[in-house]
Specification:
It is built from six helices and 22 strands. With 349 residues, it is mostly beta strands.
Length: 349
């Protein structure tokens, strides 16, 4: 770019570039690289560039028991534009990995690293598939014998990725006639920017934790959901809003609830639908997430086989689309992510 153009104007032009061109622009000059790599530029770019392409990341074990990742561009070309992303070593080394969640272009996975002597180290990996960057975070004091839950989010103001770990504890307190035990929850939040875990204790019964709105607030479920078996509930992003799906494992009914804006107690039931008729008797016909256009991604067990197929289901027209991905049973995981620059300061994978 011409030296006659003020540098401030150059930066303003750079901010309008798509992710791939921005990565290439870092090689133009040291000044451009310094600006693009700065935390202020990354945070500003994340906040103001909402029209980035959306991708559908799918993780599964193929019929040869090989862990596989594929990504679709979630636009009008779906499902034609499919590719295999570069998977970092930090993800490939995870044993028994699952996807915790995705936010602001980042995907968070949880699993274990196998150490010498066959000991297992609980680890989360935050991965940006768009720019091929990742970072591994050890999860301290995670007792697999105690009930626990993990969550992931990115602060929309600071672009700081955060992991929440909620573990069940047992506390003893005295009463007039003996000693009784009560259950409590220990909540720990990890901030990538600070690199530390912060502890807090409390009663989170029937509530959710919102990681993307500091301070970390609780979201209250309606009674129709709060007092159900938590194994029946699934949390997803539906058209940029929090959605809760309730599904009884042995039932053929699915309820879709959507959280309103602002009020932490505002949930609206959008749909009560039957599973697609020809799949409804299969145990593995379970929801996996929503596409940007609102179709529900589901896994369907193949009758008489130890395998399952990925489908998407239109909640309005009831149209079923087989996406041509066949996997071992219970191995399909799906998440949505948009391209972003977060983790640009991490080493290349």
């Amino acid at each position: 770019m011409s030296d006659h153009i003020p540098f401030e104007l150059q930066v303003d032009i750079i901010k309008r570039l798509p992710i791939k061109l921005l990565i290439q622009a870092r090689s133009v000059s040291k000044a451009w690289k310094s600006v693009i790599d700065s935390s202020d530029f990354i945070a500003d770019y994340t906040v103001h560039n909402h029209d980035q392409p959306q991708h559908l990341l799918i993780r599964y074990e193929n019929l040869y028991s090989v862990e596989t990742y594929v990504s679709f561009v979630d636009d009008d070309s779906f499902p034609q534009n499919k590719y295999s992303p570069t998977v970092p070593r930090s993800v490939n080394l995870l044993s028994d990995s699952i996807i915790i969640g995705a936010s602001h272009g980042l995907v968070c996975l949880f699993g274990c690293y196998l150490n010498p002597g066959h000991s297992r180290k609980a680890t989360a990996v935050i991965w940006n598939p768009s720019i091929r960057k990742s970072v591994a975070i050890a999860l301290p004091n995670l007792d697999m014998r105690v009930a626990h839950a993990l969550g992931f989010g990115v602060c929309p103001v600071t672009s700081d990725p955060k992991i929440v770990k909620i573990s069940g504890t047992r506390s003893r307190h005295k009463k007039m006639k003996g000693v009784t035990c009560s259950s409590r929850w220990q909540v720990e939040v990890f901030s990538l920017r600070s690199g530390v875990w912060r502890n807090s204790y409390g009663n989170l019964s029937n509530n959710l934790v919102n990681l993307e709105r500091p301070p970390h607030s609780q979201i209250h479920l309606p009674n129709e959901l709060a007092f159900r078996d938590k194994m029946e509930l699934h949390l997803f992003n539906y058209c940029d809003s929090l959605a809760v799906i309730r599904q009884r494992i042995m039932d053929d009914m699915i309820q879709v609830w959507r959280k309103g804006n602002g009020d932490s107690k505002s949930f609206t039931k959008l749909f009560t639908i039957k599973k697609p008729y020809r799949y409804r008797w299969y145990m593995s016909s379970l929801p996996l997430g929503f596409r940007m256009t609102g179709e529900l991604m589901m896994r369907k067990a193949n009758k008489g086989e130890d395998s399952e197929t990925l489908i998407d289901y239109d909640l309005f027209s009831h149209h079923i689309n087989d996406l041509g991905i066949e996997s071992e049973c219970s191995s399909l995981l799906v998440c949505l992510y948009k391209e972003s620059l977060i983790l640009l300061d991490q080493p290349d994978i």
